[in-house]
Amino acid sequence: MRNLSVLEETAVALPEGVRVLDLCVDAVESRTFVVAGDSTATAQLLTYDRAYLLTSTAALPFAASERIAGMHFLMEREQVVVALESGDICTIDGSGAVDTVGTVDARIAAWRWSPDDEVLVLVTGEDRLLLMTADFDVLGESPLAAGQREDAPVSVGWGARETQYQGRDAQPEPESVSRLSGDDDMRVRVSWRGDAQFFAVSFVHQGARALRVFARDGRVHSEGEGAETLEHTLAWKPSGRLIAATARRAHRHEVVFFERNGLRHGEFALRAGTGRVRELSWNAESSVLAVVAETRDGACVQLWADKNYHWYLKQELRARDVVRAVWDPEESLRLTVVCARGFVRVQLHSAAAVAHAASLESNAAACVVDGARVLYTPFAHANVPPPMALHTLDAPMSVRHVAFAAFGAGNGFALLLADQRTVVLYACDAGKARPRELRYVELPADARARQVAWAERDVLVSLGAGGVSVTDVAAGSTRVCAGSAGMGLAVLAAAPLVGQVLAAGAGGRVYSVALDASEPWALAQLPAPCAEVDAVACGALGAVVVGRTARNQLYANSRLLSAACSSFFLRRDMLLFTTTTHCLRVAAADASLVTGAGAADGDGDEAAAGQGEARRRIERGAAIVLAAPAGDAVVFQMPRGNLETVRPRALVLAAVRRMLDAR
Hints:
Layout: E1 2-13, E2 19-26, E3 31-37, E4 42-48, E5 54-63, E6 68-74, E7 79-84, E8 88-92, E9 98-103, E10 108-113, E11 119-124, E12 128-133, E13 138-143, E14 189-192, E15 198-205, E16 208-215, E17 220-223, E18 235-236, E19 243-248, E20 253-258, E21 264-269, E22 277-282, E23 289-295, E24 298-307, E25 310-318, E26 322-327, E27 334-339, E28 342-354, E29 365-370, E30 373-378, E31 391-394, E32 399-404, E33 413-417, E34 422-427, E35 436-442, E36 449-456, E37 459-464, E38 467-472, E39 477-480, E40 489-495, E41 500-505, E42 509-512, E43 521-525, E44 532-537, E45 543-548, E46 554-556, E47 559-562, E48 565-570, E49 574-579, E50 583-588, H1 592-595, E51 615-617, E52 623-627, E53 634-637, E54 643-646, H2 649-662
Antiparallel strand pairs: 1-28, 2-3, 3-4, 4-5, 6-7, 7-8, 8-9, 10-11, 11-12, 12-13, 14-15, 15-16, 16-17, 18-19, 19-20, 20-21, 22-23, 23-24, 24-25, 26-27, 27-28, 28-29, 29-30, 30-31, 32-33, 33-34, 34-35, 36-37, 37-38, 38-39, 40-41, 41-42, 42-43, 44-45, 45-46, 46-47, 48-49, 49-50, 50-51, 52-53, ...
């Protein structure tokens, strides 16, 4: 039930006339190394710091016209290693000193460092496999296509089909024909498993694409099951379970999966209109698969995630002249999109798009993005498990962000499309009725919005490259909020419980957006930047902001409520949150959130869960989807993807008290 939203999107352009040849990142220092140059000069190594400022430039001993086999940053040695297809291998240290450590005479067709930076796999132009240490000492060498796998069975002919009687009408078994896809680039690919014990190699052999799995010492472990049109892409899931590749059939384009033993293990179809796939790559925690593909509108990066055995297209990142995508080795949802003339650093966050309005007529609805489809389910009236939904809505293109209305019953919602300027507004009546399309809203061409909030019936707020903008839907005019461009805002969220639109900055400060487009005013200062924010009215204290960071810290204004919060939902009367120790906590949404009376931290006494109405044990990994605004039901999503609805004792007793008071 969670979608991927873009928190930050920073574009860095290279100097005029210079193009990107390759890129790698230093996860510890948040540095970006770019090999760049033009066709008439030597290549250069450009170093950018965490603020994306160019800090150093080093000249490299080869021309920019040379083709690069790959580059990698060795963390322990503080070195950048660059390999050329001609066979030269160069290292660049922190001072900018360049050293050519060796040359492979037979050229380099592909290379890949192990995740622990201890073993280097090289495939030469003569289809030979080389294993090297971090000091570039050769560990072993063998032909890529030769050798028998270590677990190959020995056949003595018993039970073979050709030795058995098949009957008079038996026909010879047709041979499976493997052929190359028209999109195959004929190049070799290497991918390591996350624990660095195995690696896979995809290469062209005897007119067809072959897949082989090798052990760390170079022994052949298994061979991939034959696929009719297996393509050049290859990415081993870091968790180790699956190897991803692409295959094009006559009727569809697929991402196919192989197990370590080479057997096929499922697939999913790419969207219609997806052309040649350039690259596949997994993020560090194996939760998102990035597909760099060519479409009718140019190359883009598609981000796919799976739940309940269904693959969802969660984001489609578009940029000019996309070349490849590089995941951060440490921050699992940080991605660098490499373009021909620069790069774009994207920070993502996974969160559910659900209704928050405290109204008895609220449908308690949720929207799940699946490419250009939006799966809509009103949980107040129907609990439909994913990947199904009560209603499926079709948008003109992939959806980038979903925001529910902050006015009335809060049943309407807005869809921001992948072009970052088109917003589709939907209205929905109470009940199981299908949402109806109201209108399209076009934001300014330079807005490049990444998040939206539907503040009032005719007021739409967007957050983009130029800061926060307020759009008058009826008049069709857009104004940029004064001073918002320099605030470093990353999160835009409507807070219907206080009737405000919140904008959270990188420094932990939370602002309230003025709908007259004047300068946003500071509402609260949280101790750390938060990826999810909401607010509730707490009497004399006014609006209290509740925020959760990407590192699972939950704050109420400046007070730490939990250091291990995995999800939360804020109602008018209750704050519900789950912890990484598999416990549901319920706290009153009043002044005690800030003062601390009766709202103890949820990390020290989990053994007491179930002994009071404020605590309840839940299944490992369960996360809150939403809580009924005025009822007693809470919907959880389990790690497998299925939904469960529970009625915590605290919410049931609160509902009973309300009914007794109403008598």
